[in-house]
Design a protein that fits this description.
The protein is an alpha/beta fold. The protein contains nine helices and ten strands. It starts with a strand and ends with a helix. The structure holds adenosine-5'-triphosphate (ATP).
């Protein structure tokens, strides 16, 4: 479904990603791991079209998207939840979610019930301002906002970062239920070995802008993680 070949991208003169190859198959949960600063966010942004690659191709559902705009990629069915929680603090939870509808290609008036079923707390807080939610709830809102557009592939950049363990579990459950629904693929940046081996199907390790290890998550050993991820 998503296929990346020989991708090179960066900022101005500085090339961050070199010769990146990656595949995400329909229904797969793929975990992208790597130390701080190796280029994980740069890769997610390049997939979403926020950074223009210098070389290589990005193909999605047999369509080449390498040079298309971020909104065309969103309309093609790619959802993106950036690192940090970029919700609109002055808008209500419901208004934040309705904005998510604009991104996709689905014509719908309201927030689908399935999204509130995944995040019951957002239904309870529908009329509250986004800025009044706790950090974990804002993270749930930012994932839910991407889901209302009903993407086929969702990119999640460190969704578990800096949130309390109980919310981490809720977000893991959401990812598990996305996986169980078999309607969406997930590509997420996550450092936890437990997550990578328990929920993800496949993993990639990025180091200095290139993929240095990959494989089925069930075969991911602590030794490999230590080798590639220890600081
Ligand atoms: N806007 C930018 N302009 C120039 N350099 C940047 C910019 N954003 C990131 N970089 C550099 O690109 C490199 C890769 O950063 P990136 O954020 O992709 O890494 P990361 O693996 O996601 O790290 P982290 O886990 O800390 O988020 C870093 O050296 C960073 O300093």
């Amino acid at each position: 479904m998503l296929s990346i070949q020989e991708l090179e991208a960066g900022y101005g003169e500085s090339m961050i990603l070199r010769n990146v190859r990656m595949q995400v198959e329909p229904g797969q949960v793929v975990c992208l791991m790597g130390r701080n600063g190796v280029g994980k966010t740069t890769l997610m942004k390049t997939i979403m079209g926020l950074i223009k690659p210098r070389r290589g191709t990005i193909t999605y559902n047999e369509r080449e998207l390498t040079h298309t705009s971020p909104d065309k990629r969103a309309k093609a069915g790619i959802g993106y939840v950036p690192q940090g929680r970029d919700i609109f603090p002055m808008l209500t939870v419901e208004e934040n979610l309705l904005l998510g509808l604009e991104a996709g290609s689905v014509r719908r008036k309201g927030v689908p019930d399935s999204v509130y079923e995944m995040f019951p707390v957002l239904r309870e807080m529908m009329r509250r301002k986004g800025g009044d939610l706790s950090g974990g709830q804002q993270q749930q809102l930012s994932i839910a906002r991407a889901l209302v557009a009903e993407p086929q592939l969702i990119l999640l950049d460190e969704p578990m970062e800096g949130i309390q363990p109980s919310i981490v579990m809720e977000i893991e459950q959401v990812i598990e239920s996305i996986k169980a629904s078999k309607r969406m693929s997930v590509l997420l940046v996550e450092q936890s070995l437990t997550f990578a081996t328990s929920i993800a199907d496949y993993y990639y390790v990025l180091d200095k802008g290139t993929i240095v290890a990959e494989g089925s998550s069930s075969a991911l050993s602590e030794e490999q993680v230590k080798k590639h991820l220890a600081v």
